[in-house]
């Protein structure tokens, strides 16, 4: 699965990975190279990153592995998606990895996308980069040395609180959750399920709303018991949707952090709703890597989960976060028409 980073009219110098927008001015290729990890949320390696910009604004971004670049169908799908979504936008293509193989990968992407639409293409290896679009080639050009820590854009990103993980494996670890044989997790989950089953529908909604207010609006850390209780509650589709509809782009990062904490305490058999909630928050906040990894793991634990189908479509069509208000409005209208009380018992996924 290629990782899409639906931009939504972000400025080319903007990294909106948090619950606020951070404007980072790019004036040189080395600043573009330094900023891309903040866009992705991790340091890329063996990746080719493509950003589409029109009139100085990034409208869409995606990251392919170098293995995917060798697959003709992946490149064809990418070209079709970019043509459909951003039309005549100019493209920035940046490859990260060993110099020669990355140069070949970037060349493949250039051919697939059409050189006439590529504004700049770069190859980055260690702390050196080559500007392919200016005719530089790794075979004979020494390239340009750069220090990402000295970049004005990177310094501004760090000062603004944006974080970069060491690699894609660390992103996967964020959504890995506990093992199925973790007895402490299983015991805590059983207690939370029993507690939720004893509550009235109104009590469940009140607990969910209170946790969201404290965690998202007031940045409070919830207890392990409260986080586990949230995981049990959102097994109910109505409560899951209540949590989903509470999200917006302004508080997306805090919603993401909350549901990541719940993922860490939810057994695999019950993880799908929590992973999907995390994915929505990541999508709204521009966290393409977390969004994609949530879908990957959800497909592993429950490939037929209903909300996963919706998020697959968001991913595959690179739906921009600006569509969220309309999607949320449609969902609320559906709830008004079909509203039913929450079921008296929270289903135990272990029993199915």
List keywords for this structure.
single chain; 352 residues; two-stranded antiparallel sheet; alpha+beta
Q: Quick gist of this model?
A:
This is DUF4192 domain-containing protein. Residues 328-352 are annotated as: Disordered. The chain has 352 residues and is of the alpha+beta class.
Question: What does it look like?
Answer:
The radius of gyration is 22 Å and the shape is elongated. α7 crosses α9, α9 packs across α11 and α13 packs antiparallel against α14. About 6% of the residues have low confidence. The chain has 2 domains: 163 residues, no CATH class; 181 residues, no CATH class. The longest helix has 17 residues. Strands 1-5-4-6-7-8-9 form a 7-stranded mixed β-sheet, sandwiched between helices. It has a two-stranded antiparallel ribbon with strand order 2-3. It has 15 helices and 9 strands. The chain is α+β, with helices and mostly antiparallel strands and 352 residues long. A hairpin with a 2-residue loop joins β4 and β5. This is DUF4192 domain-containing protein. InterPro entries: DUF4192 (IPR025447).
Give the strand order of the largest sheet, numbering strands 1, 2, ... along the chain: 1-5-4-6-7-8-9
| Overall geometric form | elongated
Percent of residues in beta strands: 5-15%
SSE sequence, one letter per element: EEEHEEHHEHEEEHHHHHHHHHHH
Structural class: alpha+beta
Radius of gyration: 22 Å
Biggest pleated sheet: 7 strands, mixed
Tell how many strands the DSSP assignment holds: 9
Distance from first to last alpha carbon: 29 Å
Mean pLDDT: 83
